[in-house]
Every structure is written in structure tokens, then in C-alpha cells.
Amino acid sequence: MTASAFEKWTSLTGIKVFGHAASISTRRVLLTLHEKNLDFELVHVDLKDGEHKKEPFLSRNPFGKVPAFEDGDLKLFESRAITQYIAHRYEGQGTNLLQPDSKNLAHYAIMAIGMQVEAHQFDPVASKLAWEHVFKLIYGLTTDQAIVAEEEAKLAKVLDVYEARLKEFKYLAGDTFTLTDLHHIPAIQYLLGTPSKKLFTERPRVNEWVAEIIKRPASQKILE
């Protein structure tokens, strides 16, 4: 298929996100689409009913986790893979979410490190705290304060590293907003409404960074 034919096919079939609007991983993809000013359809997946563990969703993601994604005949899963596809595929549209010189491998590697740190150091802890503070209440469960204390201690260590990084740069991957920063936003939005907010506000540079990234129009759109 030629590039022009692909553009025509994509415009006809459109972008679809299969997920839940409250899901941190789904919001990561929605944020990226909003930053790119792309039209899309959010196809609701009922997590309480376990719809993500059944067909037809399992044909989209055999691991049974939201979101799944379609762009024309392309089908993807794993939120960070999806956001990177969107950032590259639509690089010239909306907000550039890559490094200013996206062909500079050294600069891209810095951003890639930031995305790996978010995925393996920040998100596992932040998501556990969001589960304890927010999602357990939705499911009628009780917050385990011992787990909260344990996870807050872990997150504090991660944010200490961020504080040092943000003394050198405005954003985590440099002086421009990139996917590295965007990937943090959904979990941060949840935690700012909980007692764990203090972990962000008591670190001046982290606090400034958080204020900057959550005020973005795309960040506000996923809360609507």
C-alpha cells in the first residue's frame, strides 16, 4: 500500500481506542491523541464485568488488558507502544512529543531512558497508590494504610531522582515536553487528589513540573 493509499484508508476507517476512560493506561493513549489533535473513537470496555478478559477483546489483546488500538488496518496493544506509534506516525501534527531533533539518536535515547524509568520505577508504585487511594473505594474495598506507607516510601525515592533531574532541565527528557512527561500524567492526576499529593508538593522542582504538565489542555480533556 502506498503512503497516499494508507492515508486514505486511515481516514476512512479512523482511529479506535478500546478501553476504559478511567484507566491509567487508556488515559495515556487518550492524552497522546488529544496532544496530536486527532479524531478518534473510544470504545468502552467494561472492566467491572470483566469484558477485557473475554472475546472479542482478547482477540485485540491476548493478555486481557486495556487499551487496545486500531488505526486503519493496524492493530496494537500496550499503551506505551501505542503512544510511540502515534508520536512517530503523526509527528508533523499537533504537539511534537519527541525530541526536537527526533533523528538524533543520543537525544532519543535520553527520552527512551525516561520512558523506561516511568514504566519500571514510577508507574508500578504510583499505580499501586492509585489503587489503594482511589480504585479500591470505587470497588467498595478498604485502603490498606500499611501498603500506602510502603509504596509512598518507594515513590519518594523515585521523586528524589526526578527532583535532581529537574534542577537541570525543565522536563524529564530535556527542555521540551515529550512522551516521557506525558506518560506520568494519568497517575499523577489521581494521586493529586489523595494524601500522597504531599510527595509531589514537598519537592519544589517536581511540584513545578507537575503544575506545568497537568495544566496542558490535553490533560484537562481526559478529565472531562
Description:
Its EC number is 2.5.1.18. Its main location: cytoplasm. Belongs to the GST superfamily. Phi family. The protein is α+β, with helices and mostly antiparallel strands and 224 residues long. 56% of the residues lie in helices and 8% in strands. Strands 2-1-3-4 form a four-stranded mixed beta sheet. A hairpin with a 2-residue loop joins β3 (68-71) and β4 (74-77). The protein is globular and about 45 Å long. Residues 1-12 have low confidence and may be disordered.
List the helices and strands and how they pair.
Elements: H1 3-13, E1 15-19, H2 24-35, E2 41-44, H3 57-60, E3 68-71, E4 74-77, H4 79-89, H5 105-138, H6 145-166, H7 179-182, H8 185-191, H9 198-201, H10 204-214, H11 217-221
Parallel strand pairs: 1-2
Antiparallel strand pairs: 1-3, 3-4
